[in-house]
């Protein structure tokens, strides 16, 4: 059975800290791995990773994929209270002509002032 | 920035009633999806839709569920006879045509469905 496992499930840090969120997967027909940020409602797209070893960056956030070891990490440096959210990892598999997403449970990040 | 919009934001319905959840995907997107998230659980795939037909569906998407694109902008999810266990947040998502490359799915704010 395809699965996506995120760790830790929750994390409390102080502003300015650096955090690393983990995502491991076992998916039969891997296509891409995606990270989303979910605050109150819609998961908001952060990154899509398809190739191993290529870091994607956006401001203080970065992510990398290891297709040999089947995991990805999401790093957030100099955290701010606005980073508080649930971070979702999802794997896109080859389903028909397009992929559906298999989600992990998410990591709930709380950043305290 | 273009976004996926969903209505209503909250729907309360008696068990056994039919509900229709509505979505307006991003205008130039061609792939459409429904996901659901039961409180405290993972986001789960329900169905994907392309070129006016279902591309893939999960085990959750049984005969009680149907999807439709009634016009050029709306994408709907219908639950024919709701059950208590259908209570969840339902997310619509859309993605662009990609050819052989991958495109991310963009999500709406969701409809919270509460079955009484």
Q: Structural class of the secondary elements of chain B?
A: mainly beta
**How many β-strands of chain B, per DSSP?**
11
* CA radius of gyration of chain B: 14 Å
pLDDT average of chain A, as an integer?
93
Q: Bin the helical content of chain A.
A: under 10%
Instruction: Name the beta content range of chain B.
Output: over 45%
Q: Main beta sheet of chain B: strand number and arrangement?
A: 7 strands, mixed
What is the terminal-to-terminal distance of chain A? 41 Å
Order of helices and strands of chain B: EEEEEEEEEEE
User: What's the order of the H and E elements of chain A?
Assistant: EEEEEEEEEEE
Strand content of chain A: over 45%
Distinctive features:
heterodimer; A: 113 residues; mainly beta; five-stranded antiparallel β-sheet; B: 116 residues; seven-stranded mixed β-sheet; four-stranded antiparallel β-sheet
Give a written overview of the molecule.
The complex is a heterodimer of chains A (113) and B (116). Chain A is an all-beta fold and 113 residues long. Chain A is built from no helices and eleven strands. Chain A has strands spanning 3-7, 10-14, 19-26, 30-38, 43-49, 56-58, 61-66, 71-76, 85-93, 101-103, 107-112. In chain A, β9 and β10 form a beta hairpin. With 116 residues, chain B is mainly beta. Chain B is 0% helix and 49% strand. Chain B has no helices and eleven strands. The model of chain B has no long low-confidence stretch (mean pLDDT 92). Chain A binds chain B through residues 31-32, 34, 36, 41-45, 48, 50, 88, 90, 92, 95-106, and chain B through 4, 31, 33, 35, 41-45, 48, 50, 55-56, 58, 91, 95, 98, 102, 104-110.
């Amino acid at each position: 059975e395809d699965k996506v496992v995120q760790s830790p499930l929750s994390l409390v840090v102080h502003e300015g800290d650096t955090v690393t969120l983990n995502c491991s997967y076992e998916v039969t027909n891997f296509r891409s791995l995606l990270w989303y940020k979910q605050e109150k409602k819609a998961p908001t797209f952060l990154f899509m990773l398809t190739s191993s070893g290529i870091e994607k960056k956006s401001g203080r956030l970065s992510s990398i994929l290891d297709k040999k070891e089947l995991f990805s990490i999401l790093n957030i440096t100099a955290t701010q209270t606005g980073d508080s959210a649930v971070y979702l990892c999802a794997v896109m598999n080859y389903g028909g002509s397009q992929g559906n997403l298999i989600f992990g449970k998410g990591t709930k990040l709380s950043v305290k002032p | 920035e273009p976004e996926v919009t969903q209505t209503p934001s909250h729907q309360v319905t008696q068990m056994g009633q039919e509900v229709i959840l509505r979505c307006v995907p991003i205008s130039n997107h061609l792939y459409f999806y429904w996901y659901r998230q039961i409180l405290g659980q993972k986001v789960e795939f329900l169905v994907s839709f392309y070129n006016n037909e279902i591309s893939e569906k999960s085990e959750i998407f049984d005969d009680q569920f149907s999807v439709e694109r009634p016009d050029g902008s709306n994408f709907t999810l219908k639950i024919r006879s709701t059950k208590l266990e259908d209570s969840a947040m339902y997310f619509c998502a859309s993605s662009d045509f990609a050819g052989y490359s991958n495109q991310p799915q963009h999500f709406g704010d969701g409809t919270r469905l509460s079955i009484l």
